[in-house]
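U., I forgot to send this yesterday:
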Amino acid sequence: MHYVDEGLGEPIICLHGEPTWGYLYRRFIPPLSKANRVVVPDHMGFGKSETPRDRKYLLKTHVENLARLIDDSISRTSPL
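Result:
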């Protein structure tokens, strides 16, 4: 799963919808990352994240990937 991780402090996680990708937030990241940590993932199969070939590609997989990224982002105060 590709993601951008910039800045330090409380995390802000910017999520894209469908059919977009994290590039949507390219102009938000620099100003937000001056005071916060900004994490912008590309969901699997979108943007720079490839579609998984070695496991099922389901909504459940998307939810699990995102939950893991959020848990990691909240538990750390510095970039991953």
